[in-house]
Predict the structure.
Amino acid sequence: MEILEQGGNAADAAIATAFAVAVVEPFASGIGGGGSAVLAESGADPVAYDYREVVAQNGVIPESGTGIPGFVAGLATIHEEHGQLEWEQLLEPAIDLAEDGFPISEFLALRMKSDAGPRALGGLPQFKASGGSSLLGEGDELVQKELAKTMKTLANEGSEAFYTGSLVDELTAVEGIDARSLAAYKTDKREPARGEFGDYDVVSAAPALPGAALIQMLQVAEAQGIEDNAPGSARYVDRLTKAWSVADRSVSRYFGDPRFVDVPIERLTDAEANADVARDAQAAGTGADTRVAAAPIVPGNTTHLTVVDSDGFTVSMTNTITNFWGGAKAGNVGGFFLNNQLSRFASLDTPNNQPEPGRKSVSWAAPSLVLDGRDRVVLGLGSPGGHQIPNILAGVLVPWALQDASLQEAVNAPRYHLQDGVLAVERDPSPELAQLIQSRGWQLQRTQRKDAVFGSVQALQIDYGSGRITGAKDTRREADFAIAEPRDD
């Protein structure tokens, strides 16, 4: 909001916020990772940016899974093509947060003590109580001087400092990162995936990200008549999981880095074709695959932010270091944590998703926009959540677009995710849903807020009639929104 008040546009505000979030959520995204964004300026076609991590030029994946980071390059590209304020001005808020400190939130404290947190933070004094060995806790001040120093270098020297300049020596001390690969990194600018859903068009991230799969899921669910079923009912879950199973198979069969493989985006986002697919899916069912060992559904990392400015310019941006605390084995360099994104080649080991020099893996971030019949953005949204992201977003878009739910009602709607015969739920199932689970042979996984399985949707809705923007607060993780009052002019 400060950046918007200073005369910046949505791109400026998104860049500044992404750097700030890298300070206050170091477990989730930042300089050592990557991201993706979908942008739509008034009167222009939406555009997608992919700045996810890539395999080094030697084609080798290190034990940590660390790829060549794209976060800095991606934000610099967006700034160059869309920004209005000076680059160094956009890093000032993040530098202040890192240098002066901020109180540790409940969720950050939880992540510090969970997952890979203790291992990632074990040798880092900034995360420990003064003179002690115990980690800081909720409410304690976290000061990150080394991170502030790195961000000052980026502010003063530009993004080149990370790829060809003064930060390269420190980065290349990390296994899997070398000077040639850093210098070769380029942000990919692509046409986003787009398809009809209800009275709208959904626009989402291009492959290797799953935007087209999200659209296919929505179209299959709509063709099955999901709008007639209340969220949380057995029929709703049945249709949603069938639609997801179709989309998940599409990702496994077709998706990969489009610079290396052809992904049939137009076919996957064709509403008529997916209506035919829906009929087959409705008849097939989604029983548990006994060939696959059921395993718990794990938390999904990443951070998401959505920005709309007074001109209607909208940015939907998802950034990540992949797992919580990224590649903890790679340690902390320059005050930031490095990603383990290249592990995604092994977790989705398909013919179209194989490592090669400079290649990106299939991943699950899906920053999205919804357009009305006049090609105006009426909703921007996205979420952290890893593999669960398509289901998280579908769980919001179905009630919002097809059932006239308000944005907050849609965000509050129950979420589900089916994976390898395990159905993750947020609340105890009704008798009707419990019967469906039993008939399908699924295992039930009841999640809690601390598990962070179902992300945190960050969404803004635009009403052109009133000229107002509406937000929604997702309490599954820490989240909030701010909206300025309309100006008289």
Notes: The longest helix spans residues 234-254. Residues 190-299+365-472 form a domain with the Serum Albumin; Chain A, Domain 1 fold (CATH 1.10.246.130).
